[in-house]
Design brief:
- By secondary structure, the protein is of the alpha/beta class.
- The protein starts with 13 loop residues before the first helix and ends with a helix.
- Helix 3 packs parallel to helix 4 and helix 4 (140-156) packs across helix 5.
- The protein has one domain: TIM Barrel (Alpha-Beta Barrel).
- The protein has helices at 14-19, 57-69, 97-108, 140-156, 170-180, 201-206, 227-239, 253-262, 273-284, 290-304, 314-320, and strands spanning 30-37, 43-45, 53-55, 74-80, 113-118, 131-133, 136-138, 160-163, 187-194, 243-247, 267-271, 308-311.
- The strands form two sheets. The protein has an eight-stranded parallel barrel, surrounded by nine helices. A two-stranded antiparallel sheet has the order 6-7.
């Protein structure tokens, strides 16, 4: 009790605060999401996500090299197709943008961890994450397409595949396909608890993936539910997931904590586009200190229990932590 107990003693100097700090951020915690398309010399800024770009493979390799020099060791790739159709055929094309980027990155930076998003929404003409029939997104017919996409990424050299579609059974289907083709070493980072969130808005511009009709509430999770997240995580682990993810992060810190306390497995959290863009817009207005807020946000995600943080702030945060 005061005056014997004085917590401020351990806040007195920066060195003392550093000594007793409970949660520590490191550039190695971050996965840097990137958007790639076919072509050469392309680096076009995404208007809804300032500081993020559509890259061609050559400029992507340059960007990743700079990020690696700043301490970033992991990237997540999203592709923008040349063409779209009802079943997202280009997602599993061995010569598509993501597959080409994986090969180029692994050749240039063999130690880089290359993760690929496995979904169909960027590739389908209707913008949904699966096969559509009479306005319904069909679960089981989608699994074969997702498995084919993951296999294509594995053939290109991906270290991990990250299914983000939220179809039931997709982790098991992908694991079976990978193992059957001899890719037993390729890990699965599952978007296990992915909520139907309003925070994805800027991403849908970045990936040109907004649904042309309806919404994604029939396959992404209800934001009101947390017990359901534990069931989803448990199912994905049973099917062979190596790492599980909660998405988004900031509005779901309680879910991150709940999953971490319930499962002793590596846990990722996605600091999504809307969270990024809101922070950047407020900083542009001068309403917040951008650098301090970035580190505070990322610290809160790690403090909640995330071991891995997917964030568009990755490069700037890595520089700030130097």
């Amino acid at each position: 009790m005061f005056p014997v107990s004085r917590p401020r003693r351990l806040r007195r100097t920066a060195a003392i605060r550093e000594m007793v700090r409970e949660t520590r951020l490191d550039a190695g915690d971050f996965v840097y999401p990137l958007f790639v398309r076919q072509g050469r010399g392309i680096k076009n800024e995404i208007s809804a996500m300032p500081g993020n770009y559509h890259f061609s493979v050559d400029t992507l390799v340059e960007e990743v090299g700079q990020a690696a020099e700043e301490g970033i060791r992991s990237v997540l790739l999203f592709g923008l197709p040349e063409r779209k159709d009802a079943v997202g055929s280009e997602a599993s094309d061995d010569d598509a943008a993501v597959q080409s980027a994986v090969r180029a990155l692994k050749k240039a930076y063999p130690e880089l961890i290359v993760i690929t998003d496995v979904c169909l929404c960027e590739y389908t003409s209707h913008g949904h994450c699966g096969v559509v029939d009479e306005g319904r997104v069909l679960n089981d017919p989608t699994l074969e397409l997702l498995a084919a996409t993951a296999l294509s990424h594995a053939r290109a050299g991906a270290d991990m595949v990250a299914p983000s579609d939220m179809m039931d059974g997709r982790v098991g289907a992908i694991r079976e396909a990978l193992d059957g083709a001899g890719h037993t070493e390729v890990a699965i980072l599952s978007y296990a608890a992915k909520y139907a969130s309003a925070f994805y808005g800027p991403f849908r511009e970045a990936a040109d993936s907004a649904p042309k009709f309806g919404d994604r509430f029939s396959y992404q999770m209800d934001p009101a539910n947390s017990d359901e997240a534990l069931r989803e995580v448990g199912m994905d682990l049973d099917e062979g997931a190596d790492i599980v993810m909660v998405k988004p992060a900031l509005a779901y810190l309680d879910v991150i904590r709940l999953v971490k306390e319930s499962y002793s497995v590596p846990l990722a959290a996605y600091n999504v586009s809307g969270e990024y863009s809101m922070l950047m817009a407020a900083a542009e207005k001068g309403w917040i200190d951008r650098e301090r807020t970035i580190l505070e946000v990322l610290t809160s995600i790690k403090r909640a229990g995330a071991d891995i943080i997917l964030t568009y702030h990755a490069r700037e945060a890595a520089r700030l932590l130097r």
